[in-house]
Protein 1
Amino acid sequence: MRDEKTENNALAINEVQLILAEKRTSLAVMRTGIAVLALPLSVMSVLIATSKYYEAIQVLHFLIPLGMLNFGLIVLGLYLIIRSIIRMRHHDELIHEIKLNHSVIGKYID
């Protein structure tokens, strides 16, 4: 009986470690999303800072594709950030379930 309880606690600890590893992966995806989101903002700031050196009408054939690429990067960055937030909430729910089911290790998990 004692060995079975110890095995259940060890299994629960391993489950929590696996979920925390998945949560770290979600945090890395969020960090990537933030970096992707920052790239269009920096490109636009350079364009605005140098706008006195060119006429927008004359370089419109460059600005339109660049704007479309920036829009795509913004959408991708937002998607990665939102997806990682949703997944982290799911991981928190799974950890909470394990905490409720295994009261012995529940006191060690916040």
Protein 2
Amino acid sequence: MGKKSVPRRLKDNESMAFAKAIRISPQKLNLVAGLIRGKDAGKALADLAFSPKRIAGDVEKVLKSAIANAENNHQLDVDRLYVAEATVGRAFALKRFRPRARGRTGSITKPFSNLTVVVREREEAN
């Protein structure tokens, strides 16, 4: 009897990878995600490899995972892949407190982010 299978959310020429709870604020992560939106997969990997941002390594790992999913799970051509979407969202924030002068406290929030990368295969130019 089992559950009915859920239909696939993406099209047949797309593949996705998702990373939860990356330890950086969504605003900073979105700066790096903006570097790769709309670029070819190979060019995006090269840009991330030489980016000075600390989080670029994690974004590169998610992009490589999306490319591997496209190749192994959906039999897409790796040479024709490009980054269709790179979306960033808030996950949660750890709240910490530091003692300050005169018996007060200063609050510190340590935000976490989620990252979704969708790669799509380009149509053949006729």
